[in-house]
Amino acid sequence: MTGRLVLDDRFANANAIADQMARMQPFVSAMHQRLHRDEDDGLGWVKVPQDSQVPVERISETAAAIRQQADVLLVVGIGGSYLGARAAVDLLAGDGPAVRFAGYQLSAAHFEQMWRQLEDQRIVVNVVSKSGSTLEPAIIFRLLWPRLVSRYGPEEARRRVVVTTGAAGALRQLADAHGFRTLPVPENIGGRYSVLTAVGLLPMAAAGIDIHAVLKGAQEAAQQLLDPDLAANPAYRYAVYRNWFYRQGKIVELLVTDEPRWQAFGEWWKQLFSESEGKNGQGLFPATAQFTTDLHSLGQYIQQGRRILFETFIDVEEENVSVPIPEVADWADGFDFLAGKSLHWINRQTMIATRLAHADGGVPNLAVRLPKMDAYWFGQLVYFFLKACAMSGYLAGVNPFDQPGVEAYKRYAAAVLGQPGTGEWGAELKRRILEMEKHQ
Q: Which residues on neighbouring strands pair with residue 285, listed in sequence order?
C-alpha cells in the first residue's frame, strides 16, 4: 500500500496564513537541513524506519517466543517507554497475547488489583527504560520480580523477563547480572521519539501487529517528507500552522479523535509535543478530547468560551466495521431519515458539522486525514507527528529533543524520598516541606 496523509485546512483560515507560509519557507528549509545533517543530539529517529539500529528480525523472534510463553505481556514503562506501544495496541491489536501496562504510576491499589487479575495468567514482563533509573518502572519491576520468582521459580522467572534498555545504566547491569533477554534502545533517540524502535515494536509484534507494515508506513512517510517545500510537506505545514496560531494568542491545541480506542494515541501525542515545546515560559498546551462524547462537556466552552484554542482532528475515512442504522417501525425518535446510513458515516458527518460550527465560533481547526487505520497507516501517522514536532520546536526557538523540566521533578522526588547523594540541598527541601506542613 502507498499513499500519504492529507492536512485538511479548510476551517483554518488558510487564506490569512498564506503570506506567513511564504515568509517562513526559508527558515523551514534551513531547519530541514539541520534535521537531516544530524547536528543535534536525539536525531536518530529521523532515519530509524530503515536503520540497522532497529533489529527487526530479533524483535520478531522475541515476540514469537512471547506468544508461545504468555497469555499476557506486561509492559513496564512510563512516558515514551510505553505510550507509543499502548497507542498501537489499542488501535491495532491482533491475535497475540493480551498486552497490559504497568510502571506508569505509583498507585498501590492499582498494582494489587492488576496482580490479582493476572493470578491465573501466564505472564511475560517487558521492562522498558533507557537508563533503568526512572522511579516508577524501577519500583514496579522491583515489586514484580519476587512475585515472578515465587510463581515460577528463579530460572523460569528469568526466562519470563525481556529488558528493553540502553547500552549502559542500572537496567542494563540488572539484565546482565540476571541473564534477562535484552533488546536495545538506540542512544541517539529520546523516549518520546522511540515508538519505531524495540521500545514500541516488541509489544506491537507480541500483540500480533504487523511491525513490517508499521515500518513500511513510516519509511514511506519519511520519503514523502523529505521535501522542505511547505506546499509539498504537510508535516511542516502543520508545524507552521501551530506556530502561527500560537502567535495569534491560541495557547491550547486540542487533539480531537472520534472513538475511544484513540485515547492512548492522544496521550502519546500530548507527551511528544509538551516535552518538546514546553520550555522557556512558552509553548502550546496540548490537550485531547473525544468527540462526540466531550461535546457534551467541553463543547460549550469550545463554542463560546475564551478564544484561546485551536483544534486538530484525526479523520479516518474508511470504517473498520460496518454498522448500518436499521429501519424500526413505530419508533418515534425522529431519526428515520438516517435508516440505511452507517454509524461511521454519521460519526464523520457529525465531525464535519462540529468543525464548521467551531470555526464559525472563532475556533480554527485542522484535520489530519488518512484513508484507514491499520499498521501501515499507524506508521505513517507516527512519523508525520515526529517530523512535525521537531520542526515545530525549531520554529518556536527551543530544543525539541530535551526535557529539563521532567528532570526537575525527578531530582525533587529523589531528595524527598531520601535517595543518597542529594546532600544539603535535599535536606533543605525536606525542611521546607516540614515547615509547610506545620501551616496546613
A: 252
* Range list for CATH 3.40.50.10490 in the chain: 6-37+216-396, 46-209
Which residue is listed with cell 496521550? 267
Query: Do 11 and 356 touch, CB atoms closer than 8 A?
Result: yes
**Where do runs of H (alpha helix) occur along 209-322?**
211-224, 234-247, 263-277, 299-304
pLDDT tens, position by position, 278-302: 999 999 999 999 999 999 999 999 9
Topology of domain 6-37+216-396 in CATH is Rossmann fold (3.40.50)
Evaluate the omega torsion of the peptide bond into residue 350 and state whether it is cis, within 30 degrees of 0.
no
Query: Where in the sequence numbering do the catalytic residues fall?
Result: 275, 296, 410
Tens of pLDDT along 202-219?
Answer: 999 999 999 999 999 999
User: What is the side-by-side strand order in the sheet with 181-184?
Assistant: 98-102, 72-76, 123-128, 161-165, 181-184
Q: Which residues are bridge partners to 314 per DSSP?
A: 368
In sequence order, the β-bridge partners of residue 367 are 8, 313
The values of phi and psi at residue 316, to 5°, are -105, 120
Task: Note the pLDDT of residue 51.
Answer: 65
CATH number of 46-209, picked from 3.30.70.100, 3.30.390.10, 2.40.10.10, 3.40.50.10490: 3.40.50.10490
List, in order, residues 6 or more apart from 153 with CB less than 8 Å away: none
**How far does CA 280 lie from the centroid of its chain?**
23
